[in-house]
């Protein structure tokens, strides 16, 4: 689509840009794709006939994402005016053979029009005579003056309204009207319709600039070769909305199909750009996956092999054994003072002991089970801490923390207290002993 100019010899500098919004950062971008140079607009129009703009991805200047453009933007840079913005229909791509035939028809438009020129003008005049007043109201002042000048009718009118009034009052006969109409529309037919060609028309904009009646007649009757009839069909639905007579239903149906096609094209364009956004999202996720894989690879290659301390290995096995034993315990713990059935019975110390007796001087021995506080006061060899083992209160915690070694009286302690003491001993690396004895002197003799 190209914007019409009243002055075809006006010097312009037209540039064409690929434009669209980045699917990643949603910033608007324009990228120059062609420069027509500084020259008269008429020469630019002729050059446009031979220029095909290649549609390619553009790179976002903000985030460097490559994406498909949404439109072609034509700008006149001398006056900083946007001449046109044409949506790129990715769903409407022509095959190479059809494109070649359309190009040939466009190049041959002058010869083809010459063969049908008289018929076109006769129909155009007849059409205007049927709607004379409305047709005159569509003419611009310079067109009205051209028609009056052809009939040698002088005028002192200063406004478009005064000119139209004079035409309606002074141009009376059919011959005068025919000559007036051809002269008034000479520029429209030859410098607009024919010079630009059907491939460059934009029916809706033309109807606003040149009038609904004239645009309608041009769309329906302009001489086109067969390969260009698709262009005519696309434009009919945009300019023929109401009609009377036998063709009314046909034109109405064409308009409906044209609207459906426009909606479908828009939907397809939206889907295409949604695919662009999904492509960017997938690229971002693939980049993250790649970075994670690389980080994992680096972590594996830089991982140091550490030898674990044998004592740590022993503790891990003991804790695992403790967990398995706890899982097997079902129901609530019975707090009665009865013998606990455990694998360690008869239980010996779990820590390796050297041969012979050892001295307990300076050590703190924690005895859990029963009431042994009176006997503990008689011991001078080491420090004795006792706890009944029925409750796991703060005194129980204090005994565990302050003791160097632990002794469990299996007949007088609850399961919960025994598991708690065993877990503490394993974690802290403290010796723990199990016995059925109740005399402290004997207990100390057993653990030496």
TrEMBL record:
Q: What species does this protein belong to?
A: Virgibacillus dokdonensis
UniProt feature coiled coil, ranges: 275-302
Alphabetic keyword roster: Coiled coil
Question: Under what name is this protein listed?
Answer: DUF2325 domain-containing protein
Q: Which domain of life is it from?
A: Bacteria
